[in-house]
């Protein structure tokens, strides 16, 4: 039998067992400190059609601006009940929902502070590698000085800024392509 290259595959399918347990969508549990929020992230393909079988991960600092990670050794409170990581699959409407807290500001390596944000990883059919983006909160006064947001062309920044819906959830559509494509970062 001749040996050849392994054929390329897209990401997925995803199995329910990988979406529960410590990697769940409720990050604001067990008495976690901070302002509680609901975040709704909706995946769309390049044609605007929702993606009902994607997976979204979020990673964020706690309300004091400290990550639950061994490399974050700053002298800030570490909330033992807050993991800072969540994972959820999208529903039939293409939406993944998270219960979390508003993150604190974290430092930028070159100096200054970043605006509160969520780091987002997207996994979907047809995507060979994870896509990395961010969610910022509309109306936050620190947006104008955020060093990462300021690297993005002004006309494209709105693809990273969540707005509140009538129920108070922070909503961000994530477009994988097309005229409204979300800004993705090469990390």
How are the elements arranged and paired?
Blueprint: E1 36-44, E2 55-59, E3 85-89, E4 95-101, E5 117-123, E6 131-137, E7 161-164, E8 170-175
Parallel strand pairs: 1-8, 6-7
Antiparallel strand pairs: 1-4, 2-3, 2-5, 5-6, 7-8
Number of helices: 0
CATH class division: Mainly Beta
Give the tally of β-strands: 8
CATH topology: Protocatechuate 3,4-Dioxygenase, subunit A
Multimerization status: single chain
Class from helix and strand fractions:
mainly beta
Kindly, what is the distance between the CA atoms of the first and last residues, rounded to a whole number of angstroms?
A: 39 Å
Strand order of the largest sheet: 3-2-5-6-7-8-1-4
The proportion of residues forming helix, as a percent range, comes to under 10%
- Give the low-pLDDT segments: none
How much of the sequence is in beta strands?
25-35%
CATH superfamily membership, which one? Answer: Aromatic compound dioxygenase
- Count of structural domains: 1
> What letter string, H or E per element, gives the SSE order?
EEEEEEEE
Shape: globular
CATH architecture name: Sandwich
Rg, alpha carbons: 17 Å
Largest sheet properties: 8 strands, mixed
Overall pLDDT: 90
What does this structure look like?
This protein is mostly beta strands and 187 residues long. The chain has one domain (16-175): Sandwich (Protocatechuate 3,4-Dioxygenase, subunit A). Helices cover 0% and strands 27% of the residues. A hairpin with a 5-residue loop joins strand 7 (161-164) and strand 8 (170-175). The protein starts with 35 loop residues before the first strand and ends in a 12-residue tail after the last strand.
